[in-house]
Amino acid sequence: MSTTERNVAETDHSRRAIFIVVAAVSLILIIGLIYLASRPSTGGAGAQQRLEGALRPGSPEFEKYRQQISLDAPEATEAKRALGDIVMTLKTTVRNFTGRTINGLEVYAAVVNSQGQPIKERIVIVIPARQAELENNRTMEVPITLEGMTDADDRANIKMEIAGVRFE
To answer: How far is the C-alpha of 163 from the C-alpha of 112, rounded, in Å?
Structure first.
């Protein structure tokens, strides 16, 4: 009987050790995932992808077409994540009245403070990334998500504008 009791005690001890090791590894994995999820995005203006061969602000041809590509007044929705930061989705509608088909479009989105300085900003290639092209006299809805803001940020206004355009 004593040998059986010793085997049962050793089995209980080894099971307990296995559970402790599994719990410790799980805890480390969970902490690692929370750390990775809570890190702010590192995509700065220099790291963002840009549209090749696009007309940019400052060129006379861009200014001519900027008047014919209209953006509706942007609207924003705001959500608080469990990590404590705030995510805002800015939406607008792009309208093409240029007489040409757009096959490349970059849109700049920003949340600005009361002094007009950007808190969070992002440039997104919406054509061809989300849609192949935008024909003349057609519209396209453009949502852009900005994340990593806090309650302490002075979010006074939102801004969306064309950052680059390319035609067929």
So the answer is: 17
